[in-house]
Write a structure and sequence with these properties.
This protein has about 300 residues and is of the alpha/beta class. It has five helices and five strands. The protein folds into two domains: about 50 residues, Helix Hairpins (Orthogonal Bundle), CATH 1.10.287; about 220 residues, ATP synthase, F1 complex, gamma subunit (Pyruvate Kinase, Chain: A, domain 1, 3-Layer(aba) Sandwich), CATH 3.40.1380. One of its GO terms (molecular function) is hydrolase activity.
Length: about 300
């Protein structure tokens, strides 16, 4: 059994670690609140874009636009599929990154011609270790999700899609279901699924609910709106992932702090036992010494 000094040293080390985990918990909590506020402030604009696209689709269901082109002439196994993969720059976030990697691997195993666009340093490192080629990685984006960075990603994938380098584009990110649950999800960005722009239930798609004028043409309006809509969806995915990362880190740091406290409690009991044993030993030695002195005096 360790002596009292060694136990005290270990307890001091654990207390120092607890200060770090508590600080990381507080920082992640602050970042989470800020990210959720930014997303809430921008959501109305992108919901308005989605409603506008829905109105156009409802009024012109026969519209033909490259953004809706599913390219049925290409066999599924021959399609070039792009994946925007959102990971973290740092660890200590529980299973956050592992769940994303697992979902990406499942998509790659389905076959086809996958092309990865990775956001996050850990994702880049993971795919390099696995020998999986990365088309492009976007650095310095995960820790500061904003619209300008989302537009950079949007411009790249839209260019690849319209030029034929990609036939489909998906985004793999982590959605925060609630404070205790985060899920890795995959969502199709391109071609735009018309089912995402559904009309009110029970109303046929070709029924005009209101009069709208689209100038110079519905296609031109769609072409102007869709890039902003995609950028908004990417921004939402980045913020959701960032929020999930911070929430996962909060939970991990909370668990680490609790484990450290449990260790301190156990070490405190051990320390008290060692200290009590040392005191008992000292008392025994004093008593033994006193008895020895008495015997000498009697002689």
């Amino acid at each position: 059994m360790a002596n009292a000094r060694e136990i005290q040293s270990r307890m001091n080390s654990i207390r120092s670690t607890m200060k770090i985990t508590n600080a990381m918990y507080t920082i992640s909590s602050s970042k989470l609140k800020k990210a959720r506020k930014n997303l809430t402030d921008t959501e109305p604009y992108f919901y308005a874009l989605q409603r506008t696209i829905s109105r156009i689709v409802r009024h012109t269901p026969e519209i033909e636009d490259p953004y809706f082109d599913t390219r049925p002439q290409i066999k599924p196994e021959d399609k070039k599929i792009g994946y925007i993969v959102v990971t973290a720059d740092k660890g200590l976030a529980g299973a956050y990154n592992h769940n994303v990697f697992k979902l990406v691997q499942e998509q790659i195993d389905k076959g086809g011609n996958p092309m990865l666009f990775v956001v996050g340093e850990l994702g880049q490192q993971y795919f390099v270790r696995k020998g999986i080629p990365v088309e492009q990685d976007f650095r310095y984006t995960v820790q500061n999700p904003n619209m300008s960075r989302a537009r950079i990603i949007e411009e790249k994938i839209v260019d690849y899609f319209l030029s034929g380098k990609l036939d489909e584009v998906y985004m793999i990110y982590t959605r925060m279901v609630n404070a205790m649950k985060m899920e890795a999800e995959i969502t199709q960005l391109l071609p735009l699924p018309k089912s995402n722009f559904s009309v009110p239930q029970g109303i046929p798609i070709d029924i005009h609910l209101e009069e709208i004028t689209m100038k110079p043409s519905p296609k031109a309006v769609i072409d102007a709106i869709v890039p902003n809509y995609i950028a908004g969806f990417i921004y939402g995915g980045l913020v959701e992932s960032y929020s999930s990362e911070q929430n996962s880190r909060m939970m991990a740091m909370q668990a680490a702090t609790k484990s450290a406290q449990d260790m301190l409690d156990e070490l405190a009991i051990t320390y008290n036992r060692v200290r009590q044993a040392a005191i008992t030993q000292e008392i025994t030695e004093v008593i033994s010494g006193a008895k020895a002195q008495k015997k000498k005096k009697k002689k």
